[in-house]
Amino acid sequence: MITVTDLKKVYHQGKREIRALDGVTLSVPDNSVHGIIGQSGAGKSTLVRCLALLDRPTSGSVEINGVELTAVHAGELRKARRRLGVVFQQANLFDSQTIAGNVAYPLELARIPAPERDAKVAELLRLVGLGESGEAYPSQLSGGQRQRVGIARALATDPDVLLCDEPTSALDPATTAEILDLIGAIKARLGLAVLVITHEMHVVKRICDSVSLLEDGRVLESGLLVETVGRFGSRLSDALLALPPHDPTEAAGGTLIEVLYAATSDGPPKLTAAERHFGIDLPVLSGTIEHLAGTTFHRARVRVPAGTSADQVVGFLGEVGAAAALSAGEVVR
Ligand SMILES: Nc1ncnc2c1ncn2[C@@H]1O[C@H](COP(=O)(O)OP(=O)(O)O)[C@@H](O)[C@H]1O
Ligand SMILES: [Mg+2]
Question: Which domains does the chain carry?
Answer without folding.
Answer: 2-231 (3.40.50.300), 241-331 (3.30.70.260)
